[in-house]
Design goal:
Elements (H helix, E strand, L loop, with lengths): L1 H34 L6 H24 L21 E6 L5 E6 L2 H6 L13 E2 L6 E4 L6 H7 L5 H7 L16 E6 L5 E7 L4 E8 L2 E8 L3 E10 L4 H7 L4 H11 L14 E11 L2 E15 L2 E10 L2 E6 L19 E4 L2 E5 L6 E4 L2 E4 L5 E3 L4 E8 L5 E7 L3 E11 L8 E2 L4 E5 L9 E8 L2 E3 L14 H21 L1 H7 L1
Antiparallel strand pairs: 1-2, 2-3, 4-5, 5-6, 6-7, 7-8, 9-10, 10-11, 11-12, 12-13, 14-17, 15-16, 17-24, 18-23, 19-20, 19-22, 20-21, 21-23, 21-24, 24-25
Helix pairs in contact: 1-2
Amino acid sequence: MHHYIKRQHAKKQRRSGVAHALNRWHLQLRRSLVKRKPALSQPRRIHAAWLLALVGLVASITIASLPPREDEMPEPMQAMTLMPPRQIITSMDINGEIRRQVIPSADELMASLTDPTAIQVAPATREPELSWKEITIKSGDSLSRIFARHNIPGDEVNRIIKSHADAKALHRLAAGQVLRIQTGADGRIQQLRYRLNENDTLHVRRVGSGYDITKVNQSFETRHAYASGHIAKSLFADGQSAGLSDPVIIQMVEIFGWDIDFAQELRVGDSFAVIYEEKYWQGQKVADSAIIAAEFINQGKTYRAIGHRAGDAIAGYYSPEGLSMRRPFLRSPLKISRVTSPYSLNRYHPILQTWAAHKGVDYGAPTGTPVLATASGRVSFLGGKGGYGNAIVLKHGGSYSTLYAHLSGYQRGLRAGAQVEQGQVIGYVGTTGLATGPHLHYEFQVNGIHQNPLTFKFPQTEPIAPQHRADFLQAARNWSAKLDLVGPNALASRR
């Protein structure tokens, strides 16, 4: 046992001696290279450097294989350099998607010089992709109402609108437009998109606790699309089945609303065909745009409308013959008349002897004077109507209605649901109801709200201007030919 211990001690001393000798040799070699003049040429300098590196490597391997001496052990935390831990870098790509990249620590980088597998770095990760919701704005909608329907905190509205002056446009949402929103796990808005006009889109992006608002101008590519179908359930259901978006369907209702009452007159078997524009940006469809040409067959009668383009926008819709699809109103329902009581929000009623709003105009005329329809439309009511006496209510398109009261009688054959033309005799002046003498009480409403028919600014409904007539008629022939090709009956015959 004693001899074994002496042999181990001698072996340890030999190892230590070799290590010290290699260290002294390495140090002397470095000093000789530094002091040597003149400077080494490039090839010799490279050779000496490789030799120095080789010696150092041999020395380090030899030393690493020997057990350390107790007097060379470092004190705790002595000669140790604190390295920063792994870092996570968060970035956002051009699509607004958040990515995270793990950067290895200095210790891991040093270890990788001798062991490439030492670093186990997770690959770049992508935040869970949030889905977009597309919301078609309804009539009377506000941002607050939309947020409430989709369980978005109400305080988000003021925070977004107050973030930038351009965001004030969100106070005036247009019916039929599409609002695109993206919400996070907390239900709050992460991103929002709203088209301000044909070329500008409002971009809202959440940044921290606030919002970044930008107005983006986009150069769109315009493409033509078409759809056609028959009515089996409802206009919206069958329009969507044919591939039409809600904004395009609403456009179609507005175009033909002067001739067709879509709430009362739609029938199973009616058909439609629409040619419209689609907007693309960077190869991706972003929105449906204006209708170019459309056809609707209602109860066997065909209606066609062609859009007249002024610059980049559709200025109005006309029949293939150049007549406006919107109908003008006559200022007076009587050929010869005088105003006996004007429209007023506070008038003294001669019979009821109270102050109240007079939501129409009274025209004095002899009993039996013919009463004219001020615009083409449909009879929605005909009969006794309380203080109005004998009355007629006409619907003109989707937004307008007129009322004719105190009539002595109706035009023969006239009934509820009948179509009347502008200037057609519909009844006769009388004194039925609460009337002190023969006169006609006439009311005018827009979207259910009474307006003064004497001062209301009616929509312009002039025929196509003479200087544009030739070009329009040529374009109308071309688009009518295309409607013939894409109509539901034409497509069915080719199948």
